[in-house]
Amino acid sequence: MPQAKSLPAWINAPLPSDNSKFMYGMAIAKDRESAIKAALSDMVAKLGTTIESSYESNEEVRGGFVNSSVKNQIKSDVSKISINNYEVIKSHKVSYREFAVMLRSDKVKFIKGLKESLETQKREITQKYDSLKDLDALSRYNTKKELSLKSSELLSNVLIVSELDKSFDKKGNLNFIEIKQKEFLKEAKSLKFSVKGDAKSSKFIKSIKNYLAQNGFNVVDTKDAIEIKIKTSDNINRSSFIKIAVITLDIGVYDKNQRIGGKSKILKERYNGSKESVYKNASIHLEQDIKSQGINEVIGINLVENH
User: Fold this and answer.
1) CB neighbours of 56 closer than 8 A, spacing ≥ 6?
2) How large a percentage of the chain has pLDDT more than 90?
3) Degrees (nearest 5) of the Cα angle 127, 131, 135?
4) Which are the contacts of 22, defined by CB distance < 8 A and separation ≥ 6?
5) Is residue 204 within 8 Å of residue 283, measured between CB atoms?
6) What 8-state DSSP symbol labels residue 20?
7) How confident is the model at residue 3 (pLDDT cuts 50, 70, 90)?
8) Are 246 and 234 in contact (CB under 8 A)?
9) Options 3.20.20.140, 3.10.28.20, 3.90.190.20, 3.40.50.720; CATH of 9-107
10) Is the separation of the CB atoms in 225 and 193 below 8 Å?
């Protein structure tokens, strides 16, 4: 009876500790390719544990970014990291359905790649900010919101690099993220809407104002606001058996007299002899359309809404 081959000692031995030059990963899977993927995942998982622990204990970081969603974002971002600079330093076919590998990754090249990616993203964000001055208020708001979110996504990379390279300017990079978030909050605070119209538009004005206010936007009656102007007309068809009222909202959206949006919105209601009833039902249906289709589709603007 043939004796079972003994396993190489490295398979059951503790994995070498990561050092200034290399990171290590080891796994056993059904074949060599699967084992390599699992070993790379092992490397990333160890990295993630280290980063999460560093985040939780680091007051400098947590001061501006402490909440469960940030922790979840870090975990998600770390799991997506791709480690390309690696070599298989040990491998062994354990059995016909098991293969073991040990990997080693060049830490210096890995850190360099993360730094280059970080700087590229920061440069793109900065360039986009520099192009905002000539945009209307709505476009500035949308773009700063987008860039604030993109800046927040840099946090994981900043924490990873700072953990792996103690000479990295963590404070400066965290300040970059925080400044972009504060700039968006300032822009959001300054974004105001004024909704006006003729006498027939009163119920529709109220519907739009309510929606904007309920979604966290400032609704005012001052001149420094984005103006949503509504002009309403109606046409009642009395010739058919079922009388139909067609209400047309001519909506224009302006920033400092520059038209930046708007559209014509048509609402059809059954006419029962009361215009008051027609307008009441039409305002209810407008509210329903805004909730189901979104404010952008209904009044013809491009607003990144709060969620």
Assistant:
1) 62, 71
2) 65
3) 150
4) 16, 104, 105, 106, 107
5) yes
6) S
7) very low
8) yes
9) 3.10.28.20
10) yes
Q: Which pLDDT does position 56 carry in this prediction?
A: 63
Tell the CATH topology of 192-299: Double Stranded RNA Binding Domain (3.30.160)
- How far is Cα 126 from Cα 37, in angstroms, rounded to an integer? 36
Q: Tell me the C-alpha to C-alpha distance, in Å, between residue 163 and each of 49, 54, 55, 63, 227.
A: 11, 8, 10, 18, 49
What is the domain partition of the chain in residue ranges? 9-107, 109-190, 192-299
Structure tokens given for 266: 């048509």
Residue 46: its H or E element: helix 32-57
Contact 247, 225 (CB under 8 A): no
* Residue with the larger pLDDT of the pair 38 and 62: 38
Q: Any idea what the Cα angle at residue 188 is, between residues 184 and 194, rounded to 5°?
A: 155
First-last CA distance in the chain:
69
Lookup: tokens for 43: 């490397």
CA 116 – CA 215 distance, rounded (Å): 38
Q: Contact, 282 vs 201, CB < 8 A?
A: no
DSSP state of 31: S
Q: Mean pLDDT score of the chain, rounded to an integer?
A: 88
Enter the tokens of residue 5.
């081959």
Per-residue 3-state assignment (H helix, E strand, C coil) for 47-100:
HHHHHHHHHHHCHHHHHHHCCHHHHHHHHHHHHCCCCCCEEEEEEEEEECCEEE
